[in-house]
Amino acid sequence: MTTTTPTAGAATGTTGGPAVALRDVSKRYAGERGVLALDGISLDAAPGEFVCLVGASGCGKSTLLNLVSGLDRPTSGTVTVQGDPAFMFQEHALFPWLSALDNVAMPLRLDGVGRRERTLRAREHLAAVHLEEFADRRPHELSGGMRQRVALARTLATKAPVLLMDEPFGALDAMTRDLLHDELESIWRERRLTVLFVTHNVREAVRLGDRVVLLTSRPGRVAAQYPVEIARPRRIEDPDVAALAGEITAELRQEVARHGR
Ligand SMILES: Nc1ncnc2c1ncn2[C@@H]1O[C@H](COP(=O)(O)OP(=O)(O)OP(=O)(O)O)[C@@H](O)[C@H]1O
């Protein structure tokens, strides 16, 4: 039986259960070849937990996030989320004709928040990502890193307790990515968000995650899970981060080799 059950409006942690729970979730895409993207995934994220997903290209990471977001439904199994999650992609998907402030205010506007209140709140979210001085700029007047910050601020404006991030920093240079790691980490802690973060970059996963989940090549299954017990604050170049990332990468390589991809 297929059910996707976002318990809309529930706050993180109020029911005492996991913030995100996947139970034996499979996804087969329709079409001639009927690709089986995910096969029997069971995975929880506790309220306030930062979970990173890594795996070979095409193993179903984006599919998994889409199922959690409710954009798509599993073929079988159940997906349960406490509250409506917010989604942030690699492509910032900002409205080009709107200022940074109006982009951030958009979810508030859609929620029916009045102009005065939403401007005030959007300014606070921009300040959280250190962009208060750029409130009036349009996306094309901002750098790639700044645009991703605006996208992050807009995601925060939704007040969603669960944040789904699909390679959000993949296109950024190392320095900008480092800064955004710091900002995301501090916002995550402050707001006690639950984060599901997809990345190709195993070091980034270890830098950010409380736990790293390694998926098998297609069809995606959980191959291994690594609790990250390295004290925060962490830096991506820390030897401990590099060591665990090395271990996970070795396993990932074997996984890719096993499937000849
Ligand atoms: N809408 C769709 N229709 C048919 N097949 C799809 C669809 N979306 C994804 N797929 C297939 O499902 C598999 C998993 O795709 P998905 O994008 O979830 O993988 P991924 O791990 O996020 O990939 P990458 O790391 O390259 O971004 C792939 O083989 C892909 O071609």
Automatic annotation (TrEMBL):
Please report a single Pfam family linked to this protein. Answer: ABC_tran
Q: Which PROSITE patterns match?
A: ABC_TRANSPORTER_1, ABC_TRANSPORTER_2
UniProt-listed InterPro entries: AAA+_ATPase (IPR003593), ABC_transporter-like_ATP-bd (IPR003439), ABC_transporter-like_CS (IPR017871), ABC_transporter_ATP-bind (IPR050166), P-loop_NTPase (IPR027417)
Residue ranges constituting the ABC transporter domain according to the UniProt record: 20-242
Gene Ontology MF terms? ATP binding
The entry's keywords? ATP-binding, Nucleotide-binding, Transport
State what protein this is by name: ABC transporter ATP-binding protein
